[in-house]
Amino acid sequence: MLTPTLDKLAAEGLTLERHYVYRYCSPTRGSFLSGRLPHHDHQANPGGQSAFGPNLNMTLLPQKLKDAGYRTAMRGKWHYGFSSTKYLPLNRGFEDHAGYLQGACDHLDESTGCAVDSWQNSAPDTRNNSGYDSWRHAADMVGIIDKQAADPRPLFLYASLHVIHNPVSAAARAARAARAARAARAARAARAARAARAARAARAAALAPRSRHRRSCLRCTRRRSRTGA
Question: Of these residues, 19, 40, 79, 105, which one is catalytic?
């Protein structure tokens, strides 16, 4: 897969060469945000009714950067404590946040069970059910970056997009594009297979020996036609 934009960002920025992940998502996010191994932070994958919250004595990366003079923003999935406001992104170092707090929700209406999990800073996101959520978050991030020229502070933008997470879902235009791409690949493969079969048949015909009996029969036929036999 070619990723020229990500490659450029990595070349001009900072690439993590030593980072620890866990076998599922929440501890991995905690490890990134806290800078600690999962077993020093947490190893649970809390559900919607969980009272889980990380140790508040740990200062998270966004707070460290904010203290150092950064503007801090986040879009996407949190899943790092939501049973109390003290665990929420705005109280853990982010100045600006929009996304969902639990482990998963619907990509289009942000529903999870009988509730809607869609937040913008400290209130429900009124843009809920306005389209594919990862595209909305991506558009938000473009806006955040566009406004950065007017802010003298460096920017830390945490992009934790929903698109890679279950429930597996795709927006209608993405699904249509995927179907068209699959059809195009299938058509190319069929054309390549036909061309290969034709090439094999041509090689086989070129290599096949001519029948001596057939040449003999042709000579006999011509001789008989000349003599009138």
Answer: 79
